[in-house]
Amino acid sequence: xxxxxxxxxxxxxxxxxxxxxxxxxxxxxxxxxxxxxxxxxxxxxxxxxxxxxxxxxxxxxxxxxxxxxxxxxxxxxxxxx
Length: 81
Description:
The chain is mainly alpha-helical and 81 residues long. The protein is 98% helix and 0% strand. The protein has one helix at 2-80.
């Protein structure tokens, strides 16, 4: 009978560990879901920042082309006069 009692105690301990592990697993899954949501938000922000950077670079390149055009016109005007 004593062995049966020990077996019951061990099974109870294992079941308690199992339930604790299940709870920890649920907590970790929730944390992973939260981290994934945060990563998705950061990825979207990163995409938007890259798009804005590209737009800024395009505007800068266009401004430089226009300035080069104005400088060329000034040089041409000076060479004529």
